[in-house]
C-alpha cells in the first residue's frame, strides 16, 4: 500500500515521535504550574519548541502561539479581530475563493453577521492575481487573508507581492501557511504579514497542534483577541492546558524542516518528474491542473480524461491513498470548489485526482503505486 495523500496529513517522523515519547514518559506536569520543578521542566520544553518554530519561520519566539491546529489558528486570526473591527468601524475583508474551509467558513459566518467579504477568484491556473486582491482594499478593510499554497492544486499564491503592498498601506494581512510551512522555508521568512497559521501534522509533526504567529517586529502586535474564555495560557490568546508532548513534537518537526527541507524538495521534485513521465507513457489523455512553474514539488493535481475520480479512488482504495480534493467533510459528493473557481468544467473536475507526497517517502514505492493506479485508470478508460 502506498500513501499519496501528504497534503491531508503526513506520517510522523521517527525523531519527532521519540521526542514526544520522551515527554510522555519522563516529563509530567502542567507547563503553567509555577509551584514546582515539574512545571518548570515542561515549561522549558514548551519554550524550546517555541524557539524551534520561530527559527523555522524567522520570527521571534514571543511571536509564536501554540493552538490545536491551523483551523483554530485561522479562526483566532480572523475572529479575534471582532473587537478591533467594532472599535475601528472597519467591516470589510478580502480573501480568495480557494481558501481552505477553515478560512472560508469563518468568513462566511462573519458575512452573515454583517461584514462585507470579497472572495477573489483565481485565474485558470489556480493563482489569484495580486492586483485583483489589492484593488478591493479600501480604508474600511479590516484584514486581507490569503493562503500561501493551495491544498488541492499546490499552487503558490502571490502572498509576497500582496504582503509588501499591504504593509505599505498599513492593512492587516493574514497568511494560511499550512501547506507551505516546512516546504517554502526561505519564502516564508521573507514574507510580510501580521498573522500566519499552520498545523504540525503537515510537516511530519503530530496531529492536534498548530501555530498562530502574531508579528510585532515590524508592525504592532495585531489587535487579535482570544476567541475562547479561560486561563491565561499562551498569553491569553489560546486558553487551555498546553499539550506539552504535542508542542514538543511540533517544535522538533520544525527543527528538522530547517535542516532537511532542501533535500526533501529535491526528492519531491524528482518524484514529480517521474510521475509525469509515467502519465506521458500511459497513453491516457490527461492534463495537469495548475501551472507547474508555480506549484510546490510535492503536489500533482491531474485530470485523467474519461476516468471518474470517485470510481478510480474506490477501485484503488486497497493499495493507494489519493484524494480528489473535494470537501472531505461533506457526506454527499460535490465537485471541488477550488477547481470550479479556476473555471474548470465539471466533467474535468470529476476526473481530477490529487496526489501528494513528501519527506521520507520511498521513491520506488511511490512510483510503483502510481503505476498500479494508472493501470486501474487504463482499465476504466
Ligand atoms: N489550511 C489549509 C491550507 C489546509 O490544507 C488545512 C488542512 N487540510 C487546514 C488549513 C486545516 O488544518 P487542520 O485540519 O489541521 O486544522
From TrEMBL:
Question: Gene3D superfamilies in the record, alphabetically?
Answer: Aspartate Aminotransferase, domain 1, Type I PLP-dependent aspartate aminotransferase-like (Major domain)
Reactions performed catalytically? (sulfur carrier)-H + L-cysteine = (sulfur carrier)-SH + L-alanine
Instruction: Name the InterPro entries for this protein.
Output: Aminotrans_V_dom, Cysteine_dSase, PyrdxlP-dep_Trfase, PyrdxlP-dep_Trfase_major, PyrdxlP-dep_Trfase_small
The entry lists its GO molecular-function terms as: cysteine desulfurase activity; iron-sulfur cluster binding; metal ion binding; transaminase activity
Q: Residue ranges of the Aminotransferase class V domain?
A: 2-366
Q: Which UniProt keywords apply?
A: Aminotransferase, Iron, Iron-sulfur, Metal-binding, Pyridoxal phosphate, Transferase
Required cofactor(s): pyridoxal 5'-phosphate
Q: Which family does it belong to?
A: Belongs to the class-V pyridoxal-phosphate-dependent aminotransferase family. NifS/IscS subfamily.
Q: What is this protein called?
A: Aminotransferase class V-fold PLP-dependent enzyme
What is the species listed in this Swiss-Prot or TrEMBL entry? Schaedlerella arabinosiphila
Amino acid at each position: 500500500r502506498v500513501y499519496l495523500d501528504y497534503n491531508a496529513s503526513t506520517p510522523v517522523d521517527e525523531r519527532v515521535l521519540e521526542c514526544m515519547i520522551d515527554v510522555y514518559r519522563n516529563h509530567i506536569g502542567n507547563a503553567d504550574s509555577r509551584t514546582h520543578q515539574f512545571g518548570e521542566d515542561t515549561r522549558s520544553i514548551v519554550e524550546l519548541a517555541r524557539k524551534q518554530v520561530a527559527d523555522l519561520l524567522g520570527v521571534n519566539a514571543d511571536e509564536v502561539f501554540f493552538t490545536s491546529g491551523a483551523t483554530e489558528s485561522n479562526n483566532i486570526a480572523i475572529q479575534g479581530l471582532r473587537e478591533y473591527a467594532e472599535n475601528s468601524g472597519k467591516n470589510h475583508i478580502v480573501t480568495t475563493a480557494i481558501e481552505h474551509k477553515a478560512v472560508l467558513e469563518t468568513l462566511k459566518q462573519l458575512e452573515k453577521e454583517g461584514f462585507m467579504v470579497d472572495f477573489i477568484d483565481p485565474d485558470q491556473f489556480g493563482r489569484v492575481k495580486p492586483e485583483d486582491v489589492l484593488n478591493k482594499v479600501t480604508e474600511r478593510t479590516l484584514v486581507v487573508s490569503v493562503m500561501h499554497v493551495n491544498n488541492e492544486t499546490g499552487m503558490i499564491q502571490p502572498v509576497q507581492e500582496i504582503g509588501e503592498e499591504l504593509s505599505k498601506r498599513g492593512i492587516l494581512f493574514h497568511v494560511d501557511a499550512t501547506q507551505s510551512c516546512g516546504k517554502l522555508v526561505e519564502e516564508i521568512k521573507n514574507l510580510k504579514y501580521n498573522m500566519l497559521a499552520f498545523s504540525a501534522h503537515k510537516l511530519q509533526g503530530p496531529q492536534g497542534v498548530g501555530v498562530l504567529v502574531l508579528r510585532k517586529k515590524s508592525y504592532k502586535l495585531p489587535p487579535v483577541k482570544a476567541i475562547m474564555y479561560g486561563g491565561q495560557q499562551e498569553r491569553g490568546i489560546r486558553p487551555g492546558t498546553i499539550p506539552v508532548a504535542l508542542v514538543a513534537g511540533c517544535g522538533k518537526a520544525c527543527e528538522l524542516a530547517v535542516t532537511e527541507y532542501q533535500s526533501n524538495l529535491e526528492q519531491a521534485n524528482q518524484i514529480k518528474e517521474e510521475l509525469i513521465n509515467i502519465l506521458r507513457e500511459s497513453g491516457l489523455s490527461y492534463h495537469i491542473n495548475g501551472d507547474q512553474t508555480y506549484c510546490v514539488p510535492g503536489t500533482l493535481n491531474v485530470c485523467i480524461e474519461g476516468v471518474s475520480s470517485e470510481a478510480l479512488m474506490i477501485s484503488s482504495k486497497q493499495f493507494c491513498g489519493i484524494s480528489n480534493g473535494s470537501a472531505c467533510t461533506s457526506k454527499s459528493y460535490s465537485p471541488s470548489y477550488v477547481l470550479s473557481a479556476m473555471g474548470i468544467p465539471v466533467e474535468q473536475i470529476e476526473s481530477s485526482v490529487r496526489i501528494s507526497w513528501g519527506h521520507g517517502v520511498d521513491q520506488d514505492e511511490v512510483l510503483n503505486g502510481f503505476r498500479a493506479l494508472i493501470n486501474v485508470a487504463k482499465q476504466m478508460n
